[in-house]
Amino acid sequence: APAIALDHVSHTYDGGVLALDDVSLTVQRGEFLAVMGPSGSGKSTLMHSAAALEVPTSGTVRIDGRDTRGLSETKRTELRRDLVGFVFQSYNLVPSLSVSDNITLPLRLAGRAPDVAWIASLVDRVGLSGRLEHRPAELSGGQQQRAAIARALVARPAVVFADEPTGALDLRTAQEVLELFGEVAEDLGQTIVMVTHDPAVAARAGTAVVMADGRIVQTVQQPTAADLAG
Ligand code: ADP
Ligand code: ADP
């Protein structure tokens, strides 16, 4: 099954705003997809629907082949815990926990035993081997985001959703983080869905979809910033 399959998904918020208008989208395993578009175009609603955070008004959402329709709040939470990782603009690390404990938090929440070799390889890949006992506040922004990426990957989710993951970073650090996403997709076969309003950021993904008024209006393979600027 594809990592994500949205079939004719629409979403109307209370008050009548049609935020998603009949969107169908398939994200294959190992794909690094950017969701682009101006503010208010429906990017967040699309991400929240695809991540089973929000229940769409109509249509079906499958994550790793599992239909998310009709699930209770509890079941949706379980499904996210099993299948989805998140990376946020503001890192959202737990300030009181060490880098190590932040990275392994999803495993503890899921009651899963840590695979020590996998965690070590992940920590090495994100370049934080020397920082494991530090608190988040002792790290640079780029290091904090790399810790958040390791945390999102640690439970080997079907898909990682990244919401403006470079929005708080300077240009050089942002490029390092985007490079890391590319490597993780390529080397680990990790599916990544990244939301961004920035064409230069979206251009680092393997595929970009462009949204306007709740619809996908353009899909570009191997995008360049120029493809996405218009
Ligand atoms: P984007 O992420 O591209 O900025 P959103 O998905 O946040 O777009 O928003 C799409 C549309 O839905 C906008 O018109 C926005 O104002 C509206 N919207 C978003 N969240 C809510 C909400 N909780 N209640 C009502 N309207 C909302
Ligand atoms: P980078 O460019 O590697 O993302 P910086 O140039 O911002 O990081 O920081 C250089 C070093 O200083 C980093 O290795 C980081 O651990 C340390 N550092 C950055 N910010 C802080 C901070 N607020 N407190 C303690 N150490 C920090």
Question: What would your notes on this structure say?
Answer:
- It is built from 8 helices and 10 strands.
- Helix 3 (99-109) runs parallel beside helix 5 and helix 5 (141-153) packs parallel to helix 6.
- It is α/β, with parallel strands linked by helices and 230 residues long.
- The strands form 2 sheets. A 6-stranded mixed beta sheet has the order 6-7-8-3-9-10, with helices on both faces. A 4-stranded antiparallel beta sheet has the order 2-1-4-5, with helices on one face.
- One adenosine-5'-diphosphate (ADP) binds next to helix 5.
- Residues 4-230 form the ABC transporter domain.
- Keywords: ATP-binding, Nucleotide-binding, Transport.
How is the topology of this model organized?
Layout: E1 4-12, E2 18-27, E3 32-36, H1 43-50, E4 58-63, E5 66-67, H2 73-83, E6 84-88, H3 99-109, H4 116-125, H5 141-153, E7 159-163, H6 171-188, E8 191-195, H7 199-202, E9 207-212, E10 215-221, H8 225-229
Parallel strand pairs: 3-8, 3-9, 6-7, 7-8
Antiparallel strand pairs: 1-2, 1-4, 4-5, 9-10
The site of one adenosine-5'-diphosphate has 12 residues, from helix 1.
